[in-house]
Give the backbone structure.
Amino acid sequence: MSDQDIYLIRKSVDGDVRSFEKLIKAYEQPAFAMAMSYLGDYEMAAEVTQEALIKVYKNLGKFKFEASLSTWIYRIVINTCKDALKKTKRMKEVSLEDNHFEGLRDEHQTPEETLETEDLKTMVHRTLERINPENAEVIRLKDIQDYSYEEIAAFLEIPVGTVRSRLSRGRQMLKEEIVKAYPDALSLIR
Amino acid sequence: MDCKQARLHLNDLIDDNLEDDVRKEILEHLKQCEACQKEFDTSKQIKEALATLNPPELPQGFHEALMGELRRASEPRKGFFKKNYQWIAGIAAVFLLGIIITGIQGISPLRLAGQSNEMAMDFAPQAEMPEEEPGAAAKGAFESDMTMEEAGYPEERGTPEAPRKIIRNVSMEVETSDIEAVYRLFSQQVVFYGGFVEQGSIGDYYFSYYEKIQDNARMRNAQITARIPADDLEAMIAFVEDHSEVKSVNTSTQDQTEYYYDVDAQVENLKVREDRLRELMAKAEDIDDILSVENELYRVRSEIDALTRNLKNIDSRVDLSTLYISMREVEDSGAIASTDRSLSEEIREGFIRNINRIIRFTQDAIVYVVSYLPILVLVGLTGVMGLWILKKINRRMRR
């Protein structure tokens, strides 16, 4: 960490918003991209990113210099995203109970129908939502965000070996899901 | 390599995380095995599809909106009492209870606040510890500004035009609530001033002296021995003061001026001697003469080298002052938690004290009554006898 950063952190802790602006500028876009990959919704991602960065500002005094600043910030972003997901999930469950027939029908679109309307990109993204969230999370960080194994391990506070195994399991699951949901997908890819 | 092994490494191959020889082996296998090749292609294409999902652009006006929110967040909260009235009421109630309880005991409520002060004072006496370093010219905190006359060095002893050679050592004892941050901060500041950390250590849990008072007093300490350009020493000390609670500062200065210029003169003399020896060497013809001159020359040269090393050493210690910082981690004295703990402890102790008091009062009362029983009996008997006599007298009078 540079002296400049330490200086800015100290000023920000004292309540200087300008210093915080300088400090945070470089992290805004990556944080938003991260929220986007977790939430998949543009407006919601913007909202959650803002919430997370305000959290960063308010809690900067608790930053212990143990991890790098970027790791610390992304951890907060990730946790805020997860909280937001939990909330929307709860809301979804409630609305599903109200009219679950419609909800169920929506889930069971025939593959033929969807293949016509969706391209490969959305297909992969949608399938990603169906696999185990822990594995999906690592895939998002690795394959969408392009962070290294070590960075991901630091963000999620898990060992690098766990990142490796989740990634490998997740990719296998993703592949199987795609083949299952879209039998023609492989020919589409090839 | 078989399929099983190849599949194991497939992910690393996709992420390009493999050693060259392993990668070679896998690629070799993929060439021969269609199933694995297919597997690899599919995985790679999924990865590529995922990569196209990034990166989304930041929404327009995101930065401005964020800054607006931050400015709002950093404004002092107006509705503090309204928002937190439950907390404040709760704290007030606990305080009131404590004051009532301690008030009943006849102890001043001020003692509640006194406890944390006492803890903070525990280390203060060390600030008065005498400096014991031999040859220390100045003692105590911040006396480094002392001029040389005050320190007992008359002005005329130094060479007027030559700079003084003064070595400065400062040792500081500080306390902080966040030792890691401060340790790092100081180390970086030392580098910032163009100095370096000669030695540094952090960690080593130790059990604090007032562990009995505080349950959670397992705190850490850290040390930094730093070398700092002499001109920036004062600034560094100020920096340390700004970022931690300074408990003591000891400054010692060693004036090496006299010694330095003595040695310097000695070196000059030796150099003249060396030149003369060289001249002699050129003139010498006899083998014995040459040998003895050469011997002498060698001796003079080594002496010059040794003394020059000595001078360089002093120069380095003069240019770079030594700053020793000893850090101790302490509980944040402003934290509510510690006050709460002593408060609850006060209440508990007070309660026990009062129960004891009641027991002791009852005991005392019983002892009092029992011990005075003989006297009471005597007084009672006298009274009864007195009444009996009075009655008799009354009766006689009536007759």
